[in-house]
Design a protein that fits this description.
15 helices; six-stranded antiparallel β-sheet; flat; 551 residues; 22 strands; single chain; alpha+beta
Length: 551
């Protein structure tokens, strides 16, 4: 949680009481009926400057760099031994090998947690249930996925609710590094205000000019400020000084601007502490990068063997090396000799150290090391144990995402209210997250077989690893059974009596009849037919019961 920056929420209230905000006489807050208050430019500039030096922003930026595999090892330099100010000579290698542990762990968590679309269940409100499904379309699922990814990388990310030019409500992702939150409470659950700081570029007089923007979100609207390279100071954006949440046009064509009584920014936290993943394992990743780079440097700089030459017949060392390489010959004087000193490098200790580092990275990063050779034939219980840290971490993350979706639901319900689709503001929704993990398919299928007759067909089918849609699978089974029954009835007919059975096989326009006499033989045929009919009847009953329970 951010401890480097002072409580801006409390400071904002203090500054408001001291008059750090000015009243805008031409902007009316139609929701509360009070004049909108514009934040003072100096106060905005001060907040932005404080944020740029805040440790939490530095941690966010570090997390983003490591997610992009731009690790600190890339900034490593080699120096002359005993002198930390003089760079090593050019012939010495300086490998800077980075490893994408952060990217892999983040994508692993997102794939496990959000590998399938998030769904919602609303009790006794079909209208809201259908509306939520429309809001949570493919674009929203992609936005949520990106926001959750950024949340793990930077500790917190944001969803902004807005209306497009066609009046449709949308949600977009804003990186955590762009938002300065003004929390109203120490638990960081309610926003008093927020500033979004971001950059754009514009083409002016044959050159690109960098423009900084600061959008101050308040309950009176969004106040916009800009600073460009030309003047270097913050000032109100003349093109769009104040933006409202939405507008309503009445029957006369008059348009009125309105704002929500909530800040349209919703935080998604990786954990309650808002701590990015990199802060937990950065030292381990850096050590892994350094040791790997050191091994690469040693292998390149130090040969496996060193030649020792005595009484060389010549003075040019380059000629000696050329003769040795081209002719495999060295000329020596009397009592001269060439010997070889073995200097092969043992990397066993280094590899053991790297293995331990890798294990610790996945341990404290709450991930699954896919290079673990024990995963191949592991049972279901063993796999659940391997996934336990990842599952626990994602369970905590799930509670944070669920809370964010609850806040987002309020805006969706307000949108429905504005569009005349009913008042659903007191209705809650349950959010379902379908995790994805490796399973032992053979073991699961055997368990399903052993549960036949104990559990319903729908429950068994929903647990089968080959089934993605249980309802569609039940419908398919029912359709196939009906087709088989029709096929048998079309091909055969059975009549019996007086201790005999007559089987009629239909073959187009011709029929073939076979009469089986005798109590034993006839009873066997009738018994098989009766058993098949009973089996079909039981299956039809199970399918009907499953659909009835679902309804």
């Amino acid at each position: 949680m951010n401890t480097g920056l002072i409580n801006l929420g409390m400071l904002l209230n203090t500054q408001l009481a001291l008059g750090a905000f000015t009243q805008s006489q031409n902007m009316q807050d139609n929701m509360s009926g009070t004049l909108a208050r514009q934040p003072n430019v100096d106060f905005v500039a001060w907040c932005v400057e404080q944020w740029r030096h805040d440790p939490q922003l530095a941690a966010m930026q570090t997390g983003q760099r490591y997610y992009e595999a731009d690790n600190d090892v890339h900034r490593r330099r080699r120096y002359v031994y005993g002198d930390s100010t003089e760079d090593a000579p050019a012939w010495m290698t300086n490998n800077t090998i980075s490893h994408g542990f952060i990217r892999k762990l983040v994508r692993q968590k997102i794939g496990y947690f959000l590998g399938r679309p998030v769904t919602a269940t609303v009790a006794d409100d079909e209208a809201l249930q259908g509306a939520i499904q429309d809001y949570m379309d493919e674009d929203f699922q992609r936005t949520l996925n990106a926001a959750c990814t950024n949340s793990i990388v930077q500790g917190i990310s944001w969803l902004q609710v807005y209306y497009d030019d066609d009046g449709r409500m949308h949600v977009k992702r804003i990186p955590g590094s762009e938002v300065i939150p003004f929390w109203a409470d120490s638990e960081h659950t309610e926003l008093t205000a927020a500033i979004r700081v971001y950059e754009t570029a514009r083409w002016t007089e044959g050159s690109v000019v960098r423009v900084e923007h600061a959008s101050f979100y308040t309950r009176s609207g969004v106040w916009n400020y800009v600073r460009d390279d030309a003047d270097g100071g913050w000032h109100p954006d003349e093109e769009r000084p104040l933006e409202f949440s939405y507008s309503i046009t009445d029957s006369t064509g008059a348009e009125e601007q309105y704002v929500w009584n909530r800040i349209p920014l919703i935080p998604i936290k990786y954990s309650p502490e808002e701590q990015p993943l990199i802060s937990l394992i950065k030292d381990l990743v850096d050590e892994y990068d350094r040791r790997t780079s050191d091994i690469a440097n040693t292998l390149e700089d130090e040969p496996d063997r060193i030649k020792i030459v005595r009484n060389y017949d010549g003075t040019d060392r380059r000629e000696f090396v050329r003769n040795l390489r081209e002719y495999r010959t060295a000329f020596v004087r009397d009592n001269g000799d060439i010997t070889t000193l073995d200097t092969s490098i043992s990397t066993d200790a280094a590899n053991a150290h790297l293995d331990r580092l890798r294990k610790d990275i996945y341990e404290f990063g709450s991930g699954v090391d896919t290079q673990n050779t024990q995963l191949g034939d592991a049972s279901g219980v063993a796999l659940r144990f391997v996934y336990s840290d990842l599952d626990m971490d994602c369970a905590i993350f799930e509670s944070e995402v669920s809370w964010a979706l609850d806040q987002l639901l309020w805006f969706w319900e307000q949108d429905m209210l504005l569009r005349g689709k009913g008042d659903h503001t007191d209705v809650k929704a349950d959010w379902q997250f379908s995790t994805s993990m490796i399973i032992n398919e053979t073991e699961r299928i055997d368990n399903i077989k052993n549960s036949v007759g104990i559990l319903s067909d729908k429950t068994l089918i929903s647990r089968h690893p080959f089934v993605d849609d249980p309802d569609a699978e039940l419908d398919q089974i029912e359709a196939e059974d009906e087709a088989k029954s029709r096929s048998i009835n079309e091909l055969y007919s059975f009549t019996g009596g007086d201790g005999s059975v007559t089987i009629t096989q239909n073959q187009g326009d011709d029929t073939v009849q076979q009469t089986l006499s005798g109590t034993s033989e006839a009873g066997q045929i009738l018994g098989q037919a009766s058993a098949q009919a009973a089996k079909d009847e039981r299956r039809q009953g199970s399918l009907a019961a499953a659909k009835s329970r679902e309804a």
